[in-house]
Every structure is written in structure tokens, then in C-alpha cells.
Amino acid sequence: MSEHNRPEAFDRLRRLPVVGRAADWGLGPHAVSKRTREAGTRIAGLDVTESVCPYCAVGCGQVVYTRGGELVNIEGNPRSPINQGTLCPKGSASRQLIQQPGRLTTVLYRRPHGTEWEELELEQAVDMIAERVIAAREAGWQDTDERGWRVDRTLGFCSLGGATIDNEENYLIKKGFTALGAVQIENQARI
Ligand code: SF4
User: Fold this and answer.
1) Pairing between β-strand 159-161 and β-strand 185-187 as defined by DSSP bridges
2) Claim: this prediction has a pTM higher than 0.85
3) Atom 1 of ligand 1, residue of closest alpha carbon
4) DSSP string covering 5-57, please?
5) Which residues line ligand 1 (CB under 6 A)?
6) Average confidence (pLDDT) over 103-114
């Protein structure tokens, strides 16, 4: 790649949905479909984004209202054939995922036999998780199964995702766990 065309190439790469979402944590323009942009606003003066409730596999459509990037309101999307503008109590409260004052924003750890939660630095917590993943992978590793067939897999851990994980994240989780040798990979979402 020459110096001349490098910025354009990077720009094209960033426009790929999965790269764009990773770069802006799924909140930027890459997360907004053409249909959403054209949806218009019901509450005057606010930006609107069509989304999907993250709580369960029903996948109710939501309309998310923001002002200057700040979340203002979430309500059921009348254009969704699934919920037709309605939300259950859990979906109606999904704004609290971000704006609930009691929301935990630090890593808490309770060591074996411990009775108190300890605050950890994120980097330390990630290191501890990595150590446990490596140990469990090795402890559960199988070169062959009981019939002697080559399997090269680990039964030391599995992945069970929730509905708050989106398509792109699920894609990366599947790839990552498969690369580690895991075979038990599931998710409750069916949308
Ligand atoms: S609004 Fe309720 S039923 Fe609909 S997806 Fe969310 S949690 Fe599920």
C-alpha cells in the first residue's frame, strides 16, 4: 500500500460494519442503518435510532432517543412486527442499563471463601481470567476421543452467551472459542 492511498484504504476498512462497531463501541454512525436514519423523530429535537431490546430472545424493536449522544428515552418501536410498539416491564426499563445510579462500573472480585467484594483493576482482572482460561483449556484438553478418533478439543470450558450480545460480538466469540478448541458454544438469542 502506498503512502498516497493509505488513508483511503483505512477509511474503507473502517466502514466495514464489524470494524466500525469495534472502533466506536457500537454507538457511532456505523451502528445506524439507512432505514433508521430515515425513520425521523417522534419527539421533536431528538435524534432517533432503531434498536432491539437486549434482554431476551423475543427481540422486541425499540426506538432510542438521544440528544447530543446522551440517552433521553427508549420506547417500543411501532414499526416492529414483533412487539408493534409495546415493551414488557423489563424492556421498558432498559434505559437503566446505562443510566441506573447503582450501576457497577468497576470490577468486583470475591476470592474463594472470601466474604467481602474486592475492587480490581480491569487489567488485573483480565490477566486472572486469561490464567484460568489457559489452565482450564489444558486440564480439559483431548487429543483423541474414547474411540481413538482425533478431536483436538477442550472440554475444559464452554461459552453461554446472552441476548445482550449482538451479532458481531457473537461472531467474534464463536471464532475465539473455536480457536481455543472449545466445542460447547451456545447463545440464548434466536434473532
Ligand atoms: S421487551 Fe421484554 S419481551 Fe421484548 S425483548 Fe425485551 S425483555 Fe424480551
Assistant:
1) parallel
2) no
3) 91
4) THHHHHHHHHTSHHHHHHHTTT-SGGG--HHHHTS--SSTT-EEEEEE-SSST
5) 53, 55-56, 58-60, 83, 87-88, 90-91
6) 94
By most ligand atoms within 8 Å of CB, the mutation choice from 56, 64, 94 for ligand 1 is 56
pLDDT in tens, 52-85: 898 887 889 999 999 999 999 999 999 999 999 9
Residue count of the chain: 191
3-state secondary structure (DSSP) of residue 182? strand
Residue 109: enclosing H or E segment and its boundaries? strand 107-109
pLDDT in tens, 136-189: 999 999 999 999 999 999 999 999 988 777 778 889 999 999 999 999 999 876
In a domain, 5, yes or no: yes
User: 179 C-alpha to center of ligand 1: Å?
Assistant: 33
Residue 112 lies inside a defined structural domain of this protein: no
Has residue 181 been placed in a domain?
yes
Nearest CA to ligand 1 atom 8: 56
Host domain of residue 72: 32-103
